[in-house]
Sequence to fold (330 residues):
Amino acid sequence: MRNGDIIRWLGRVAAVLPALALAFILATLIVKALPAMRINGWHFFTGSAFNEGSFYGATVKTNGVAHPPGASYGALPEIVGTLETSAIALIIAVPVSIGAALVIVERLPGKLGSVVGLFLEMLAGIPSVIVGLWGAFTFGPFIAHDIAPLIANHVPDVPVLNFFRGPVGNGQGLLTSGLILAIMIIPIIAATARDLIRQVPLLPREGAVALGMSDWECASKVTLPWVGSGIIGAAVLGLGRALGETIAVAMVCAVNLGSVTTNLYGAMTTIAATIVTQLDGAFQDATGFALSSFAELGLVLMVITLVVNVFARVLVRRVSGTALPVGRGL
Fold:
């Protein structure tokens, strides 16, 4: 076999391996979750109770699946909490990241921009547990004492805005979790956006300025559309980190398994935080039903992530196929 054939064969194997790994993980979760799916049914997506039942009572069988008496699993609070925290993180992180990337590339001197970019990349490497500790000890109390009251006390008392009113708590809850996730994904999105903006040719930007565009018009009509598909991809990378973040959220969300929070400051939980905090107790279930339910919970998170990525790919294709709006309105 020639060297070219070996390289070609290795390339094909390497191309197939990610798809095989994804299929293997998905198949494993489905097999492990099947017993729980037979009992939980659609109630798993609408129920709020997350009760492992009594491990000391006589084992009960339902639809041929053994489980502890009183076991009941509903993942609605976990699903809603995951989507809410990720949405808050993305709403905050995307504009901040794009703004930071534009400042680093187009406003700061070369050496200063490199230094700021270096610190930005270092922020991405901070372990999650350190961010969680900082959020629990410092950032969360600061939000509860200095920021949340400003929001809760000045929002008009109308039904549509009641979600932003209510007791602010002690710094653990939905708002703190979303902000912590935003801080964690800003370096990912900003560093990627910075590298993309650096690749925009200088000539189109100078041409836009020569036509009389302001700096903002040049950025919004030339620079950002030029790298629009890449920025969407960067946002998806950050969203994937936010959806699956575990320990940092578990340390600041207060892990409320019982219900969906009714205001921006209430205790809540996410799928990943629930798994990491409750998995140890699930191993005490001799029937294995608790572990099966956690596998179903993990399967839900994986499906959400895959759906988000597929949607992002479709959006990227549409954005990348559009022409640059240079000169529009002139």
In short: Residues 322-330 have pLDDT under 50 and may be disordered. Residues 3-40 form the longest helix (38 residues).
